[in-house]
C-alpha cells in the first residue's frame, strides 16, 4: 500500500511538472511564431523562394510543438465533469462504432458482450468516449491485421461495473507497465505518450479505477471499474 501511495504521488508530481513545463514553453513558442511571421515580411524578393522551404520547416515544427503542448495540457488537467445518469454499455458501443470500419479494414475480429443488468449511473459520455477510444486505438495498434481479436465486455460484480478491453497484440513488458500512465511514455515512433495519461485522468475523475494485465507476445487487457 505504501508503494502504491508513492507511485500515485510520483504520477501526480509528473503531471504537475508536465503542466508547468507546458505553460513555460507556450509563451516563448508564441513569441517564436510571431517573430517568424515578421521575419517573412523582411525577406528580400530575390531569396524569398529559397527561404520558403526553411520557413515551412520552422512553422511545421512550431505547430507540432504547439500541438504537443496543448495535448499535454489537455491530458493532465483535472476535467470538469458533465455527469448524466446513463448506460455504460451504450457509451462503450457508441465508441466502438468509431473504430468498426478500421477493424474491418484490417480484417480484425471484434467480440462484444454487454451485461444488461448494469444500471444507469452518472457518467460523462463525451469524456468517456475519448478515454475508451484511446484504449481501443492502442489495442488496434498493438495487433496484427488478419489475426487481431479485440474483445470488449462489460460485467457487473459486487455493485461495480467493469469494462474490459482485451487484445491479442504484442503485449507490454513489466518494466514498461510501471510507466504506462506517465506523460510522454511511448513505445511508438510517432506516439505522443499522452493517450493513457488522458485515459487515467478521465477514469479517476469518475472515481473509477484502471488496471492492466499484460503478457508479452500474448496480449493485453485493460480493466476499467466504476461504482454504480
Ligand atoms: P501512445 O499511444 O501515443 O504511444 P499511450 O499513452 O496511448 O501513448 O500509450 C503508451 C504506450 O503504452 C504505447 O506507446 C504502447 O507502447 C503501450 N501500450 C498501450 N496500450 C497497449 C496495448 N493495448 N498493447 C501493447 N502496448 C500498449
Ligand atoms: Mg495511444
UniProtKB/TrEMBL annotation:
Q: Does the keyword Kinase apply?
A: yes
Show the GO MF annotations.
ATP binding; phosphorelay sensor kinase activity
Report domain Histidine kinase positions. Answer: 20-228
Superkingdom assignment:
Bacteria
Protein keywords: ATP-binding, Kinase, Nucleotide-binding, Phosphoprotein, Transferase, Two-component regulatory system
**Keyword Phosphoprotein attached:** yes
**Name under which the protein is recorded:** histidine kinase
Q: Which organism is it from?
A: Reichenbachiella agariperforans
- Part of the whole protein covered: 258 to 485 of 485
Amino acid at each position: 500500500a505504501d508503494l502504491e501511495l508513492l507511485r500515485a504521488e510520483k504520477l501526480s508530481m509528473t503531471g504537475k511538472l508536465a503542466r508547468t513545463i507546458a505553460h513555460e514553453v507556450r509563451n516563448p513558442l508564441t513569441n517564436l511564431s510571431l517573430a517568424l511571421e515578421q521575419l517573412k515580411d523582411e525577406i528580400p524578393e530575390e531569396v524569398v523562394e529559397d527561404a520558403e522551404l526553411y520557413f515551412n520547416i520552422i512553422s511545421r515544427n512550431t505547430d507540432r510543438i504547439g500541438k504537443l503542448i496543448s495535448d499535454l495540457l489537455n491530458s493532465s488537467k483535472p476535467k470538469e465533469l458533465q455527469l448524466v445518469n446513463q448506460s455504460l454499455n451504450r457509451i462503450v458501443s457508441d465508441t466502438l462504432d468509431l473504430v468498426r470500419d478500421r477493424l474491418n479494414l484490417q480484417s480484425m475480429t471484434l467480440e462484444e458482450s454487454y451485461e444488461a443488468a448494469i444500471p444507469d449511473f452518472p457518467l460523462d459520455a463525451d469524456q468517456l468516449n475519448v478515454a475508451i477510444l484511446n484504449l481501443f486505438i492502442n489495442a488496434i495498434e498493438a495487433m496484427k491485421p488478419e489475426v487481431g481479436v479485440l474483445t470488449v465486455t462489460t460485467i457487473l460484480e459486487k455493485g461495480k461495473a467493469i469494462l474490459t478491453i482485451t487484445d491479442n497484440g504484442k503485449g507490454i513488458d513489466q518494466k514498461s507497465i510501471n510507466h504506462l500512465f506517465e506523460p510522454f511514455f511511448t513505445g511508438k515512433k510517432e506516439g505522443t505518450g499522452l493517450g493513457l495519461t488522458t485515459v487515467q485522468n478521465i477514469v479517476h475523475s469518475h472515481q473509477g479505477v484502471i488496471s492492466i494485465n499484460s503478457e508479452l507476445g500474448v496480449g493485453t487487457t485493460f480493466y476499467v471499474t466504476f461504482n454504480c
